[in-house]
Design a protein that fits this description.
Blueprint (H helix, E strand, L loop, with lengths): L8 H29 L3 H12 L4 E2 L1 H8 L3 H13 L3 E6 L2 E9 L1 H21 L6 H24 L1
Antiparallel strand pairs: 1-3, 2-3
Length: 156
């Protein structure tokens, strides 16, 4: 068995800062959305995927893949959103066993109402702390890590 390659001091400092930032930023964005729009960050994420999809509809497996959620989490979350009339389900014409998750008019209005405040919070809490060249660096770093994650997923 290979010996553990421990993080050096700089890597550990950077990793802990990243984990702390990610957790606190997610919590703050969730609070902002809930207080201004009664949407959770998870609701918002689902609604974004559906507004970006043609005709505001996706198969559940497509939504699961896009969000990188477990099937049970997606199913439970969609049920809660459906009870609030943010999403609906429709039969899939080409596959009698399948269904679509569809954006309702109420869901479309909810994200339209929530988006300006959410974008303002993202800008204020995140992007306003960065210089333009740092934004480009962040993009390159995130892309490199996402490529590694994609490669690891493909090997599973």
């Amino acid at each position: 068995m290979a010996e553990t390659r421990w993080l050096d001091e700089g890597q550990q400092r950077a990793w802990r800062a990243y984990v702390g930032m990610q957790g606190r930023l997610t919590a703050e964005l969730n609070r902002q959305l809930q207080s201004t729009s009664n949407l959770s960050l998870a609701d918002y994420d689902v609604l974004v995927q559906l507004t970006d999809a043609p005709d505001g509809r996706l198969r559940p497996f497509e939504l699961q893949r896009a969000l990188d959620w477990e099937q049970s989490r997606l199913s439970h979350h969609l049920s809660r959103m459906q009870r609030r009339d943010l999403v609906g389900r429709e039969e899939c014409g080409e596959d009698g066993r399948g269904a679509y998750v569809v954006l309702t008019d109420a869901g479309r209005q909810a994200i339209a109402d929530a988006a300006p405040g959410h974008v303002d919070a993202v800008r204020r809490l995140f992007f306003d702390a960065l210089e333009p060249d740092e934004v480009e660096t962040l993009y390159r770093l995130a892309s490199a890590v996402l490529d590694r994650l994609d490669a690891a997923a493909a090997r599973r």
